[in-house]
Design a protein that fits this description.
Ribosomal Protein L25, Chain P; 6-stranded mixed β-barrel; single chain; about 90 residues
Amino acid sequence: MLIVNAEKRTKQGKSFSRKLRIYNKLPGVLYGFKKSEILLILDHNSVFNLQEKVNFYKENLCLIIDKNKYEVKVQSVQRHSFKLKLLHIDFLYV
């Protein structure tokens, strides 16, 4: 099982997401059926390296947020149109 580290974020919106990307961070969200959503900040390089592995999209991941572990799957990934950059990632509770 692959491990992804994240932090909670309190701010949201286009301008805050742009500021995150300047510092090589990636906005994300964790959501699921009848569960509260959690806004996330992820390290771009570590997620980009993990997403090149086949298991990243097929199997469950261990998402660690502030010392709490969640079993998740990748729901969707938004990519930049011509740069090798991820813009946003959605995780789904398992």
